[in-house]
Amino acid sequence: MNIFDTILIQPLVNVLVILYSLIPFHDFGIAIILLTLLIRAVLWPLQSQTMKNQKALTALQPEIKKLTAKYKNDPQKVQAMTLELYKEKEVNPLSSCLPSLIQLPLMIALYYSIIKFSAPAFINLVSKDAGIWHYLYSWVGDLGFVKTALTGTFNTHFLGFFDLSRKALVSLSPLVINKEIIFALVAAAAQYLQMRQMVPKDKKDNQSAQTLGMLSYMMPLMILYIGLIWPAALPLYWTVTTGIAYLQQWLSMREEVVELDEEAATEIAVESSEKKGKRKSKK
Question: Which pairs count as long-range contacts for 100-109, CB under 8 Å and 24+ apart, including other chains?
Answer without folding.
Answer: 100/50, 102/46, 103/43, 103/46, 103/47, 105/8, 106/8, 106/39, 106/43, 107/39, 107/241, 108/8, 109/4, 109/8, 109/9, 109/12
